[in-house]
Design goal:
18% strand, 2 strands, mainly beta
Length: 50
């Protein structure tokens, strides 16, 4: 399974320890900019331009 990780789960950020057993594949960016909003305080979401 492959995941796109952002915010505090990224390497060097406070919640990255949740991914301690995950294999880092590489650094990527999205083609277009997408806003990140806090729908639920603890879980920010990356929104696609719909």
């Amino acid at each position: 399974m492959t995941f796109f990780i952002y915010q505090t789960l990224k390497q060097g950020f406070e919640n990255n320890y949740f991914l301690y057993s995950a294999k880092f594949i590489g650094k990527v960016t999205t083609r277009e900019k997408h806003p990140i909003v806090n729908i639920i305080k603890a879980y920010p979401d990356l929104l696609a331009n719909l």
